[in-house]
Amino acid sequence: MADLLHSDQRDLSVDQELALRTAAVRLAGEFIGLYGPETIERFLHTSYDQFATAHTIPNYLPLLAERFARQRLQALARVEGHHRDGKPVVLFLCTHNAGRSQMALGFFTAFAGDRAVAWSGGSEPGAQVNPAAIAAMTERGIDITGEYPKPWTDEIVRAADVVITMGCGDACPIFPGTRYENWDVDDPAGLPPEQVRPIRDDLERRIRVLLDQLAIPAN
């Protein structure tokens, strides 16, 4: 873990160092036979850096880094053909990954269950998921409090079968062979609950149409 824990970009506490070491061990166990310690540490290293400047609660950084590194490694395994479960992968992208893409992810995950894989990301990730979006989804019985804003990476986009973009414009990545859809959905940032609900309902309708197109029965 030398490369991970002795970077000029980090000023880690003892607890953070221990948490990152433990995360590396867990990830190595999960991806044994696929990726070695160097790859695990590199993904954990770069994932930590993605959050170190955006999040102000240092004790959460190792956990966020581990979760994001795991998702990235899962995506890489799909890109490289190591993971073939036949499930479609859908990626929801917006600017801050705090409102629209998180609500879309919440609906898709709730409706598709384990019949598909869904991720989300942002071109300029915010510090937290929009509380108004969380409240609106709670009204639908869907809990997105465990989600967090994150960027996208090449392997995540390349692993997706369908990429849904919402407001990220030219910043949204384009790779040949991937199906792209741009949804014209208002940004709920700064809006009161009564204005967020129509956005939520619009996303729910769009998700149901997408599930039909992918031949995925909704829960």
TrEMBL record:
CDD domains the record matches: LMWP_ArsC (cd16345)
Phosphotyrosine protein phosphatase I domain span: 88-213
InterPro entries the record matches: Phosphatase-like_N (IPR048716), Ptyr_pPase (IPR023485), Ptyr_pPase_sf (IPR036196)
Pfam families per the UniProt record, alphabetical: LMWPc, Phosphatase-like_N
Cross-referenced SMART domains: LMWPc (SM00226)
SUPFAM superfamilies, A to Z: Phosphotyrosine protein phosphatases I
Gene Ontology biological process: response to arsenic-containing substance
Keyword terms: Arsenical resistance
Keyword flag Zinc: no
Cited PANTHER family: ARSENATE REDUCTASE
NCBIfam families: MSMEG_6209_Nter
Protein name (Swiss-Prot/TrEMBL): Protein-tyrosine-phosphatase
Source organism per UniProt: Paractinoplanes brasiliensis
Upper lineage: Bacteria, Bacillati, Actinomycetota, Actinomycetes, Micromonosporales
